[in-house]
Design goal:
Elements lengths: L10 H18 L1 H20 L3 H31 L5 H30 L3
Subcellular location: Cell membrane
GO biological process, one term: phospholipid biosynthetic process
Family: Belongs to the bacterial diacylglycerol kinase family.
């Protein structure tokens, strides 16, 4: 009997697994929810202040980048957590570096948002 692999049998199955991952992150990770709320607020502000299409593209890009970084951080933290239940300096390093990446991307998004919206107010 052939060994079962975790390979996805179809493209639609791959999409379903990806969507499951996003839903799990939204349900279980407070920071993912916070970043989604902030992203939604930024989109609403875009509608209120009438940003240009290029500004909108830039803001959507940085919102997506922040969410990507947060999802990767969540995945890294989960991977570290299943690899050890005890404190290890390398586990702390991996988690801290991943969180630092989210911080850098979030600060970048904040600066871009400030540059765009400060001209509108």
């Amino acid at each position: 009997m052939p060994k079962k692999t975790n390979k996805n049998s179809s493209f639609s199955e791959s999409i379903n697994y990806a969507l499951e991952g996003i839903v799990v992150a939204i349900k279980t990770e407070r920071n993912v929810r916070i970043h989604i709320y902030i992203g939604m607020l930024v989109i609403i502000l875009c509608l209120i202040f009438g940003v240009t299409s290029s500004e909108l593209k830039e803001l959507i890009s940085v919102i997506s980048l922040v969410l990507f970084a947060e999802l990767m951080n969540t995945a890294i933290e989960a991977t570290v957590d299943i690899s050890t239940s005890r404190y290890h300096p390398l586990a702390k390093k991996a988690k801290d570096v991943a969180a630092g990446a989210v911080l850098i991307v979030s600060l970048n998004a904040g600066v871009i948002g400030y540059i765009i919206f400060s001209k509108k107010i």
